[in-house]
Amino acid sequence: MRFRLLRLRFRRRLQLGEKRAEDLSEQAEIGIEKYILRRFGRLHKVRRFVITWILLLLIGIFGTLGQNYLLSNYFQTLKPVPGGIYNEGVVGTFTTANPIYAVSDVDLSVSHLIFASLLTYNSRNQLVGELASSYSVNSLGNVYTVHLKPNLTWQDGSPLTSKDVVFTYNLIENPNAESPLANSWQGVNVSAEGPSTVVFNLPNTLASFPQFLTTGIIPQHLLTNIPASEMRSATFNSQDPVGSGPFSWQSISVSGNDPSNAIEEITLTPFSHYVLGKPKLDQFVLHAYANQSQLTNAFTSGQLNGAEGFSDLPSSIANMKSADIHNYLLTAGIYTFFKTSSGILADQAVRSALVQAVNVPAIINGLNFPTHQVNEPLLEGQLGYNPAYSEPGYNPSAAANILSQDGWNLGANGIRAKNGQQLSFNLTVSSSSDYVQLAKQLIKYWHKIGVQVNLITEDPSDFNNVLVSHDYDALLYGISIGVDPDVYVYWDSSQALANAPSRLNLSEWSNSKADAALEEGRAKLDPVVRATAYQDLLSAWQQDLPALGLFQPRLLYVTYGPVFGLNGNTINSNTDRYNNVQNWEIDEAKVTN
Fold first, then answer.
1. Domain assignment of residue 46, yes or no
2. What is the dihedral of CA 29, 35, 40, 43, to 10 degrees?
3. What pTM does this model have?
4. Residue range 555-565, pLDDT digits in tens
5. Structural domain that includes position 527
6. Which residues lie across from 327 on neighbouring strands?
7. Which CATH number does the domain housing residue 192 bear?
8. Could you tell me if 352 and 279 lie in one domain?
């Protein structure tokens, strides 16, 4: 009974709830009808009021959004950030990454990226430590002691110690290894004093020796069991090199039907324990092209971030708005070397006339890059350089008078002759270089004073043979001088002999005053004493004029858009563009200030 009463009471409450819900629904419908629907017809009477408030609301919304946008731009700027894959193109073929064998542009590029050296150059082209923390030299200048930085490692995780340094340089000296660097290291004894100290004992004082410590160091633990005679062909060199530089070897792939159109792609990854800091790029991919047209097509199609290997910039790239051109001035000099040991050019008067017949500043003004004139054995700004000893300037009248006084009379054909012999010689140049056009300019200048010059162009391999044999009358060529003023190998008379290790005295110039100055300049450590010694060299060179100095060459490097951290400064070699590659960045993002 009680349960039935509860059920009836619950049902009654439920019915009352439903009744209230129905009443509220009816009241809502009446309200909507009365206060909204019936008033739609009267909205036109207040439309201005409504529209005004809607506009004010929209202005407020968009104003707030605009303010946030402007504030975000004020507090955030577009800045380079780590990441990205850098693709670089170079002309040539890859053969070895081993720094004791690398010679070509491609090999040197890969080697520089993978292997670190004791010393390197900073953005101001100053010699600084890479693997080395410091070095010192004894009072005699023939013992150099190098201290390594702590906790150095190879890219395979093994420790890098003084034993690796000793192994590298002893291998270079080993004749069985056949390293092209061997001539510079003959007679040098290299030893380790503990795991982080290396001592170099030189046969003689050599002030410029630290410049030789920029060769990449190779790992003893991976190469010690390979005979020196087999080192050049070791798989380490081209399949699995391990260094301590900014990037590690990952892979190599080759495409193309034959060598004439082959493209090699070498992929490198950043080495997280690189001594100067982990690179900011995610990858560095070097593309080696068989020819310059392939390089041009790859760049214009946007496949590359950077390209090296152009002597002159193709018009298709020069016209690209996205192309950034970088001219690295090289510490090198382009000269016309006159063979002073025989023939017509053995006559100093003839050489003097040839020098004064050429308008070098005009030639430089015709170049498409800024550079400095080279007018003596040393470069402008180098230790010992003295403008007072510059070669004679452009003076065609004086040049003609010199030849006339020397007995070279102008003939009906416009060419001078003496005792029945025409004033004629051959000028040899490499056909692969941009020096051919320069040679033609020189020939025109010399023809104006009655000198007949025949242009001889040689392909690269034959040109190298010409350099070794000295089979020329005059040679148009560029020599690398570097930061240090030690130019002994280019001008000392001993370096002209057939049995000289390098035979880089291309003028075959012999002057006892110059020889003594060159010897003293490299045998003194005091910069003031060295600079003073070199004045005798400059004086003798100005008097004899064994060559015509022209200008410093450049490395032309072009990038597709900006590459942050890429410095356009003076460098010593093409691969010195990588001296701060660990800081290169290509990606950008907005970051808060």
1. yes
2. -160
3. 0.85
4. 999 999 999 99
5. 331-543
6. 556
7. 3.40.190.10
8. no
